[in-house]
Write a structure and sequence with these properties.
The complex is a heterodimer of chains A (about 500) and B (about 110). With about 500 residues, chain A is mostly helical. Chain A contains 21 helices and 2 strands. Chain A has one domain. Classes of the chains: A mainly alpha (about 500), B mainly alpha (about 110).
């Protein structure tokens, strides 16, 4: 029994339950303690996996097909680390922005459960457990959507709820059909039996159902409209958490299932994925350019960036998947940082409308500096992390000879820079209406600072980070390390 | 039996989808309920509808005698029903709360 693999999930569940039972005035403290402990456990898990290869646990001591296994391979460990990092930063921001009402309504517990669901989705090696993990994180996010709600949020929550429910049902139906075909729910066993079955029409139906379900969760073209219609309505701190993690879980599930369970289906789905990826990039960035609200603009960008993530799976080489892993980590951190900054702007100026803002660079230089670094990182200016991320995607596209996707990705990169420049020139540069206010306090800037540090660090130490991404991608395509870990951990 | 269940499943899914596509109102919550039922039924009958053969191991045998009703889809459906129930309850509250001309929403906005 390897405690490191289960620890992140258990810590979060315990923290969530304890904060909800504790008196309201203690909730902040328990929340921060739990999420910090989760970060520590994620670092340990990552260190262990990085040194001694994938780790597995058979829950309850039962092997598949009877039991459920958790497997932390390098990809899962990296993503749990990402979850812990973003969870930590957002928690620090939330403890400052949460009102007494929010705390009483249980925002800390909900965030803990959401993070636990995300961790479980990354770690599980069982398809039905993946469905359950999705439901845990969805239910937590549904409630977070309407906690302390005002007029606009139930409307946005409904826009978020219906596609999420639909995608969960597709996932459940797909998993049910897959069980009917293979008689197992374990991803590795199902993969082996699907390989023996070959690419029959029934397998194609399962693949299509799962792909549509995950694409809905990831907000890929043409099923992305729910995201920019709902995320702008929630507080920026929560939008930061959702944007950083939720769509990425969809992308992860797509990558995991189509490398481990249904790799054969990528042959016909690869080109389709590339078309979807290109369209997602273009529609996302065009939508972003048209917006005049900071949070609206940034949430449209979430869609655009999902396109870049899908390129890796569409091409399907080690280099391309490594690009996806690196891109995913970088993008989540940069996007969360930008939305946390938006939260600061919203709180200080009461709006995030670009037309009503101006001159923040003068009144609040640190906040502006952090925004600038994260925005340039997102847009891909060297030596920040986004530059390497984009370069890798372009490089893998060129290697595969997908010139169309290369052109689209490069053009969308320029448009991304343009949209970031739009925010910078209107809100941060220029004449401010109010020049008298003092800058944001250092403590309030801490979460953004941490994330910006990661964006810079990932850029400066791109070599080691890329080496890890490449190992994760190689393990993903090879698949034997994953199976070996399961066998070694067998009770 | 299996054919009838498949047809019922399709009917539920059709009506559920149609209701979910309505632009507004609490009918959409009903759509979620019906579509959920269709999916549960699909998972439930995935390994065939075996009637009256519980998966019990006779004394002396090591596995139940086929054909028997596969217990795994039943366990899955049980979990899915519980999760779906929570989800549907939440959806009902949300979609009824935000229905047009809702006095609460108008008062708050």
């Amino acid at each position: 029994m390897n405690a490191f693999v289960v620890a992140p999930i258990l810590i979060l569940l315990a923290a969530g339950i304890v904060t909800q039972l504790a008196p309201v005035r203690w909730r902040r403290g328990i929340f921060v303690a739990g999420v910090t402990l989760h970060l520590v456990s994620a670092v340990f898990l990552f260190a262990q996996v990085e040194q001694s290869g994938p780790q597995a646990v058979h829950l309850g001591g039962w092997e598949a097909p009877l039991g459920i296994a958790l497997v932390a391979d390098l990809l899962a460990a990296v993503l749990v680390l990402l979850t812990a990092l973003l969870g930590f930063a957002v928690t620090l921001a939330l403890t400052r922005s949460s009102t007494h009402e929010d705390l009483r309504a249980g925002v800390p517990a909900l965030v803990c459960f959401l993070l636990a669901g995300v961790d479980a989705a990354f770690l599980t090696a069982d398809l039905f457990h993946l469905y359950v993990a999705f439901e845990i994180l969805l239910l937590a996010s549904f409630v977070l959507f309407v906690v302390g709600c005002d007029g606009e949020r139930p409307r946005a929550a409904a826009r978020y709820l219906l596609p999420a429910v639909l995608s969960s049902m597709l996932l459940l139906a797909g998993v049910g059909l897959l069980y009917g075909l293979t008689g197992t729910l374990s991803m590795t066993d199902a993969g082996a039996r699907i390989a023996a079955l070959g690419s029959t029409p029934a397998v194609g139906v399962v693949a299509a159902m799962l792909a549509v379900s995950f694409a809905l969760k990831a907000a890929a073209f043409p099923v992305f409209a729910w995201l920019p219609a709902s995320y702008p309505a929630v507080p920026s701190e929560l939008a930061a958490l959702f944007s950083g993690l939720l769509t990425k879980v969809g992308v992860y599930a797509l990558v995991r299932v189509f490398t481990l369970v249904l790799p054969g289906e990528l042959e016909w789905m690869g080109t389709l994925l590339l078309i979807v990826a290109g369209a997602t990039m273009v529609f996302g960035v065009l939508g972003a350019l048209a917006q005049w609200g900071m949070q609206r603009l940034l949430t449209f960008h979430v869609v655009s960036q999902v396109g870049y993530l899908l390129v890796g799976l569409g091409i399907g080489t080690v280099g391309a998947l490594a690009a996806t892993v690196y891109y995913l980590f970088h993008n989540s951190v940069a996007k969360t940082s930008l939305l946390l900054t938006t939260g600061q702007v919203r709180r200080r100026h009461g709006t995030d409308e670009l037309r009503n803002l101006g001159g923040i660079a003068r009144t609040d230089p640190w906040l502006a500096a952090f925004f600038l670094i994260a925005a340039l990182g997102l847009a891909g200016i060297p030596p920040l992390s986004g530059f390497w991320a984009k370069l890798l995607v372009l490089d893998s596209a060129a290697e595969a000879g997908s010139w169309a996707i290369l052109g689209v990705a490069a053009a969308v990169g320029v448009l991304t820079l343009l949209s970031m420049a739009k925010i910078w020139t209107t809100a941060f540069w220029g004449e401010g209406a109010e020049g008298r206010r003092a800058g944001t306090g250092l403590l309030a800037l801490l979460p953004t600072f941490l994330l910006v540090l990661v964006v810079v660090g990932l850029g400066l130490f791109a070599g080691p980070a890329l080496a890890i991404a490449e190992r994760a991608a190689a393990d993903l395509l090879d698949g034997t390390a994953y199976v070996d870990a399961l066998r070694r951990a067998a009770p | 039996m299996a054919t009838w269940l498949a047809l019922l499943c399709g009917l539920l899914a059709t009506v559920g989808t149609r209701l979910m596509l309505r632009p507004k109102g609490p009918g959409r919550a009903l759509g979620i309920v019906l579509l959920g039922l269709a999916v549960n039924l699909l998972v439930f009958t995935m390994t065939g509808a075996v009637h009256g053969r519980a998966p019990l191991v006779e004394p002396g045998a090591s596995s139940p005698e086929p054909p028997y009703a596969d217990p795994v889809p039943q366990a899955l459906v049980l979990t899915a029903i519980v999760i779906g129930f929570a989800l549907q309850a939440f959806a009902l509250v949300l979609l009824v709360l935000r229905a047009p001309n809702d006095p609460d929403e108008e008062a708050q906005s």
